[in-house]
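Record type: monomer structure entry
Structure origin: computed from sequence
Chain ID: A
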Amino acid sequence: MNLLAFGIMRALSPPGECARELVPGPAVELLAVDGLAVAYTSRDARGTPTVDEALAFAQVTAALHQQTTVLPLRYGCWFDSEADLESLLRRHRQAFVAALDELEGCDEVGLHVLPDDVVPPPPVGTPPPDSELPSDRSRPGTAHLERLRASYARSDSSRARGDVERARIRQAMEGLYRRCYLDPSPAPGSGGLISLAFLVRRADLGPFRDAFESLQRQPGGDRLRWTGPWPPYHFADVLFKEFSP
């Protein structure tokens, strides 16, 4: 039997009751070890999840997040046995406890800036418009290099715009969040979407939203979008990247 883990939290009392009565979706179990617990479910196979399975997984994680502080795991953290889960909790107990302290009472909020006039580069081999053709049309290599030059220029402009927007948003939210995760600068072909994730104390969600709505009233604010609150996936990712099941 394969074990799929949802997240790590402090041990609850009684853990079985929490898992059975407060969490929707598939049968969820909690394995408690020395003050920590991991929520998991048993599966016959480790195949790629269906849409319904992925949604059910997210619902369980969200329900756990509503009940307690949780280090959410993304779909695909498989274990062979309860002994492996127990080993994970014991080996990284100190780091997990510190992470739970960091995330205590917090939600993740995403802020996104929609692209305006950012134009993705054309696929390789796409003929340029007549206005971008080099004067000597008998040299296709030159035309290709010209298209690459234009593409890199757009990419540089997109990255610079992203840096400015991120700095502006962080300054507007200063003092209202505990940590901020910055998605990498928009890559060529991404459309120029700019994304940030904030770890926000629940007590600060109201002022944080007020600051967001103030940004929306500024020039260009109609392109600003809010998502969440969510379990702190981005911040758990940072913590878990050094660990392997």
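Annotation 1: Residues 118-122 have pLDDT under 50 and may be disordered.
Annotation 2: The beta strands are 2-10, 29-33, 36-43, 70-72, 78-79, 106-113, 179-182, 194-201, 224-230.
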